[in-house]
Amino acid sequence: MTNSVFRLTWNSIRFKLVAGLLLITLPTVALLIYNNDYAIRVVHNQVAESSHSLISMYMAQIDNNLNDVDKYLTNLVVNDKDLQEMEYHSSEQDRTLAKVRLDHKLNGDIATFQSVDSMFVYSIPGQDYFEVFQDFEGVQERGEVRSYIRDLLRELQSTGEFKIRKWYVKQIGQSYYLFRVLQTSEAYVGAWVNINKLSISLDLLKLGENGVSLFADENGKPLTYAHAVRENGIDLTRGVQQYYLSGKPNPFLVVGEKSAKGNFSLIALIPDKYILENLPYIRKISFVIPIAAIILVPACLFLLRKMVLRPLNRIMTAMRRIGEGNLNTRIDPYPTSDEFRIVNETFNKMIKHVQELRIHVYEEQLSKQKAELQHLQLQINPHFFMNSLNIIYNLALVKNYGLIQEMALSLVQYFRYMFRSNLTFVPLKDELQHVRNYNRIQELRFPGKLVFEVSAPDFLLDTRIPPLIVQTFVENSIKHAAIVSSSIQGSVRIDLDDSGPDPRLLIEIRDTGKGFAKDILEQISAGEKIEDEQGDHIGIWNVKRRLGLLYGDEAHISFSNVEPSGALVEILLPLNPESEKGE
Length: 583
Prior knowledge:
Strand content: 15-25%
Number of helices: 17
Low-confidence stretches: 1-8
Strand order of the largest sheet: 2-1-5-4-3
Oligomer: single chain
Mean pLDDT: 80
């Protein structure tokens, strides 16, 4: 079934038409979009390379300035005699003079390093700390930085060697700073700069109206212009090895260069709108192509659906319903092309002829089925008639005329019911009364040897069932379970079974005989006619056949043996069979 549906789907006209339209339209639109995208990528590459070259130049300039400071601090540590004299145990006067000379030297030299805000020196033996600044502004800022440096120096003295070998970023308050610290055995020297000061010269970058250049740390955290990154939703964590677009709702081209002297990067954020403002034609195409595709493809699909697919779907729906057995299905007239109108009219005429032909065939099948059912019911009459003659013969031998009269009356009632057995259904109470009458005949035949109980709730007595269904199995129990030397007990129990989705009538016939043989049960399950040393079990096959004709798959009958001995027959019948409604 799955393979059939798959072939139908991929081989249908609907699929081929839609696929053909998409195969023509989508590659064309994709080619135009690709050309547009290619042109935009070329522009992005050119702008990114140009901006990267400029940023690399600025980054190199910043690194050179920081490198000059590194060289100065290194030379101070290695060659400055005043610092060495402060480190070693000189006299107090010599140390004071060395401290004055070193302070004078730093105040004079810092003017040559415009890239730093301050330099500091700390001598461990005398715990001498002094610092020089580039200007006299920012007193509060100096105090915050000085507090951080003193905390750092105390930590270094307690922990040992300072492991950071380059400029590093540190946040103090709301500002970010670059620090460089060199260590000797008896002293620390260093420098720091507010990172905002490094970005002053970056104004030469052409970034557009909303573009910015900023510094970020090694984790992509912005050190300057953080509000611009946050407001535009720009992601800086992807690194600066390659350029990329980021930002919502307006994207920015992100181009950057990592510093060789510290754990920070210089990044330029260029608005994509500014990059493409000199390409108005490409920008228009980038908007027109998706809009045209959005309008054109649905419009074509709508026309295709209205002119071809919807008429085809009506025909397919009608054929599917007919395949499910609903021959009353017709395709209603509606405005469509001449070709589909002719197909619809021809389809309706053809289904009408098929329906008429099916009705004729169905009526013939019903007549045949009714004849077969009557034949099956008539098979029972001679079967019991032979047993009845045998009972009367036995009673005549013993000259028991009273029992012969009672037997004759019971036989009259029995055969009167049998003459009604050509009916398809009878009330349950009539069938049970017939069973009681039959049991009385058998009790007269086996006095004191047979006990059969019949029980049924009153609300089920008017339920209609096929005639002779219960009596057949009661007769079968007496015939195959009767042993002259022992008594037989049996029962017929009627109840309502509500274990399934619809309530059903439960008929249970039970006896205390020897039960069914194993091979007999296998033949019953296989639906075969049963024959053993006692002759044909025609009654069982007869009942199963009649139930199949009357109920189809809705009736269920089961055969089994019970402990310690005996046979059990269970019959489940619908309360309102469809065949009874038809009758």
